[in-house]
Amino acid sequence: MGETADVVIIGGGIVGSSIAYHLAESGCADVLIIEREEKQGLGSTSKSMGGVRAQFATPINIQMSIYSIDFFSRFEEATGQTADYRSHGYLFCATTEARLKYLRENQEKQRAFGLKNAEMVSREDIVKMVPQMIADDIIGGAYCPTDGFVDPYSVMAGFSKRARELGARIWLGCAVTGVKVENGAVTGVKTTRGDVATRGDVATRGDVATRNVVNAAGPWAAGVAQMAGVEMPVSPLRRQIIKTQRCDFLPAKFPMVIDMSTGLVFRREGEAILMAWADEEETYGFKTAFTHDYLEKVLTRAVVRVPQFEDLPVNPKQCWAGLYEVSPDHHAIIGPAPGVKGMFFANGFSGHGVMHSPASGRITADLILQRESFIDPSPLGIERFAEGRLLEETAVF
Ligand SMILES: Cc1cc2nc3c(=O)[nH]c(=O)nc-3n(C[C@H](O)[C@H](O)[C@H](O)COP(=O)(O)OP(=O)(O)OC[C@H]3O[C@@H](n4cnc5c(N)ncnc54)[C@H](O)[C@@H]3O)c2cc1C
To answer: Does ligand 1 come within 6 angstroms of the Cβ of 342?
Structure first.
């Protein structure tokens, strides 16, 4: 007898793990996660900056964040493991009236969709939060105290651990190489055979018969969709993170700062500071090397805002790069695959897959179980690209 599962999830990162958790916790425990790496989290999940925020510009992102941040705040109760959720806030700093207006308008949308605690802040408020910043040109900003950071690896591990306790299985070191489709419906997946004896699982891997397959393959989502004959417009885009050496001059606790004049983002992580910046010259592709060129570009912008960064050492060996999985409108693609019954997508998070992992797990599980979710997920369906119903998110950092 070959292997069977009610649901096969391709990819054991934070998104696949959350889907497994939400399915298992809803009583659907015959779930098999197939992860090609020997360890979970080696894709985008472990490269993330861990930022979580509800200060978005579109209703769907705001609602997914509200669900997710509430989930992070009770993560340990739900999974038995900490998410290391730190509600230190996100602070957007504006230097032009146009950007301030944009933040104000976003806040109206955020309030209308249930985010009650985001507020506009003055330059004086900003200086109180981060006194070391040069703020002469800052005319105000937006702040939400329940935004903050989580530990992405811990979140992924918590979702997986609890899913396994409830009966879900995970195969590590096993790649899905094909999705079997008969008469327009999924019937199984093909996997590599090998003798990867992990965690007491069987030592050989063959095909798995299943009626439901979820593509949770992160930056590799387009290739997996192709296995079911579907074109998925998700492209890998390198994003790099600078980690400084011990920083004593910035406060022990301050928000994720977004300098809207340059796009520089920074926050504290333990003794160090993490910095990121979206390099518009970056091109699509599976590029994962950290570059010296990037370091220069970011530090040039960083010292303008915080001159003391000039003397803060950075060891490039402690910096890293990973891949965003970018969709054309910077919104997730969640929903059934058109024309392939039983195939589901949870892809294209465009840099928000960690913060939206609880919501995307919930929505995907609800779709598979054919029940209502906490939001109408139809705007996230892949058909929107063919139908020209793009969701424009402008608050992308
Ligand atoms: C530098 C950087 C900073 C970021 N910062 C943030 C942030 O602050 N906040 C935020 O919310 N998000 C952030 N992100 C984005 C976030 O990390 C991703 O959106 C998220 O991790 C996606 O999770 P995933 O589970 O979909 O993908 P992944 O973690 O990439 O998992 C996909 C898995 O699928 C596996 N896989 C692929 N193909 C196959 C196959 N054929 N068979 C079996 N397994 C397969 C891979 O091995 C991988 O483990 C950041 C990303 C980067 C790179």
So the answer is: no
User: Is 334 a pocket residue for ligand 1 (Cβ < 6 Å)?
Assistant: no
Question: Is-contact 313 336, C-beta < 8 A?
Answer: no
Do 25 and 166 contact (CB within 8 A), yes or no? yes
**Beta-carbon-side half-sphere exposure of residue 121 (alpha carbons within 13 Å):** 23
d(CA 147, CA 127): 19
Question: Would the CB of 335 count as within 6 Å of ligand 1?
Answer: no
3-class secondary-structure state, position 241 = strand
16 lines ligand 1 (CB under 6 A): yes
| Ligand 1: nearest atom to the Cα of 219 | 30
**How many whole angstroms from 113 Cα to the centroid of ligand 1?**
27
Per-residue pLDDT tens over the stretch 371-397: 999 999 999 999 999 999 899 766 555
Q: Which of 126, 92, 57 is nearest to 352 (CA)?
A: 57
Does the beta carbon of 354 lie inside 6 Å of ligand 1?
Answer: yes
Does the pTM exceed 0.85?
yes
Amino acid at 366: D
39 class by beta-carbon count within 10 Å (0-12 exposed, 13-18 middle, 19+ buried): exposed
φ and ψ of 112, to 5 deg: -60, -30
